[in-house]
């Protein structure tokens, strides 16, 4: 056998580089991740995974960037600007229908249940979903929770024809509700709830109903990659999923450390508030009965089809996409490695 120096010289390599099989180091592939929004407590599973070297251990030199909405994240992943995105899975249905050659797929549904919800305050007089008809609802036009409201209304037995919608920018939605300019809004529960607290609405005055708990049980946010990229980079996709699951386990075990990993990136990050946001996300969207039984990321074809049918109805698609056009479970590790509790 050649001495190590001779081997390195023969390969034209610098002694500073580690070759496969020498001390076990792995080559690092650039791996860009786009989140769905500005860093919140829920995103700490990504920053903790990076901080603890979980992506590096999978051979990935990760770069994590904030997002500007799930729809924008889908476009960035489909364009190749990012290898992976974290976004509401529903946001990909219409995009895939209109861009079949740039289709994206979900390789890991992180949120087993969507956080889409109807949120109001007690002064609106809305005490149940059946009270919504005759009231005004606000949301950005085209935003996922609003687009999915018609199939949700049908599932929940709400007369959607008697609801008046107000269009508004996403950054004004919760302020408009706090000021009483609309009676209720649709949006992500863990975003609007804590925005209302920041606007001095007492927590006891916030009333909400999630879609998933009231008739429309859909997957929420997950990891999305371009289908063509996945065909050529299965190993990277598998490694990214393992790293994110490891980050989620770390977040569950030590929320304080996870929040600290975000605080290092964002000095204005409110740790106390974000820990509460994370707890709501954990209890309502992640640690569901399904996850407790099967582990995180479990793919139920029937629930996946429900998501596709709801979006096809909401967007007026001529055909309901097939489950395997948007979902795959081949990047998931064995169920034993996906147990969270």
UniProtKB/TrEMBL annotation:
Keywords (A to Z) from UniProt: Iron, Metal-binding, Pyridoxal phosphate, Thiamine biosynthesis, Transferase
KW Transferase (keyword) present: yes
Cited Pfam families: NMT1
SsuA/THI5-like domain ranges (all copies): 41-258
Keyword Iron: yes
Family: Belongs to the NMT1/THI5 family.
Protein name: Thiamine pyrimidine synthase
Originating organism: Teichococcus vastitatis
